Amino acid sequence: MTREEYCSRIQEAIQAIGFQGEFLDYSRYGSGHINDTFLIRFKESDGHIEKYILQRMNHEIFKKPEELMKNICNVTSFLRDKIEKNSGDVKRETMNVVYTKDGSPYFRDSIGSYWRAYLFIGDAVSFDRVENVKDFYESAVSFGHFQNLLADYDAGSLYETIPDFHNTPVRFETFKTAVAADLLGRAAEVQTEIHFLLERAEEMKVCMDLLKAGELPLRVTHNDTKLNNILIDNSTGKGICVIDLDTVMPGLSIFDYGDSIRFGANTAAEDETDLSKVSLDLNLFEIYTKGFLEGCNGSLTEKEVEMLPMGAKLMTLECGMRFLTDYLQGDTYFRIHREGHNLDRCRTQLKLVEDMEQKWNEMSRITGKYR
Fold first, then answer.
1. Number of domains in the chain
2. Distance CA 345, CA 204 (A)
3. Ranges for the Protein kinase domain (predicted)?
4. Which of 70, 99, 122 marks a domain boundary?
5. Helix H or strand E encompassing 239
């Protein structure tokens, strides 16, 4: 598609969605890699400039955008009711979908692309990396509060926007198939990593077995609990809103917690090649655990709290396994920027798992401390 054609699709979406006022302009916004995101400005009759977020949804990754938007609309509507009852600010504490002029939460343009819009939340910022301990703590409180607000939502009523996203046993079977197929002849050079994962086969199924047994409850989960999916208020420094709800679906609370630890409490970058730099920062682990459980405000069960360290380990193990699977299959899923990039990512995750195992007793002590 040419730039002119793409601009035409943007204008088509702007005209279809129920924005208020006189259109002023739009510009690219944010650093996301999945959807195309724009900041739209409209001038209202009283001279006020209202901002909106417009996104072209990536329906190659999210195959059923209609179901995805139903999830988002239902969850944000539920959140607004809770926030209102708590005397909160419904325009800043949750995302608000802007419907099309004919009442739909999304618009499908003339070439079949899906578009959606949200109210813009101003005077707030998100961070791509943990640069400030307080911000990491605030993200923990926010994701925990998200769990608390949705604790009585019927998670089973949500669609799976990406089926088996955190079904680790299914991911493990896919990995073993990739090893057996060895499409590019890469398996021989990664035998150490393959055996590391195979040796932990029993752990791969622990959490899903507990879910099936009813010992871990099915929850509404975010499934992308990175720091940059929390908006932090510029004036108060407090986390105010959980954003990017594309992967909201049924899941386990310990996985949301665990993915934050995997991403935020690692002393190195996700693709660090010097593995001596990779370890679990126990201080950040404790800070996040404290904030998350404060935000949950007693809504987790005793078993969920007990299993938080396993959530961290399993999400790290699963992520490393996914990177290795993609490497064996020819780097077809994760975008790479150099030869062996997915292998580097895999090794970083597995080294972090190894370090967690060495610090297991301390991790368990910390979670018990804030139970």
1. 2
2. 19
3. 23-371
4. 122
5. strand 239-242
pLDDT score recorded for residue 216 = 98
Q: Is the pLDDT of residue 28 over 70?
A: yes
Task: Find out whether 273 and 344 touch, Cβ atoms under 8 Å.
Answer: yes
Instruction: Tell whether 200 and 242 lie within a shared domain.
Output: yes
Domain that holds residue 268: 133-369
Task: Give the domain CATH number at 214.
Answer: 3.90.1200.10
Neighbours of 186 (CB within 10 A): 17
**pLDDT tens per residue across span 318-369:** 999 999 999 999 999 888 999 999 999 999 999 999 999 999 999 999 999 9
Per-residue pLDDT reduced to its tens digit, 88-121:
999 999 999 999 999 999 999 999 999 999 999 9
Shared domain for 198 and 325, answered yes or no, is yes
Residue 25 phi/psi, 5° resolution?
-170, 175
Is the same domain home to 203 and 69? no
| Residue 127 covered by a domain | no
**5 pLDDT higher than 80:** no
Integer CA distances (angstroms), 296 to 64, 88, 227, 262, 313, in order: 31, 17, 17, 19, 20
Residues 145, 253: one domain? Answer: yes
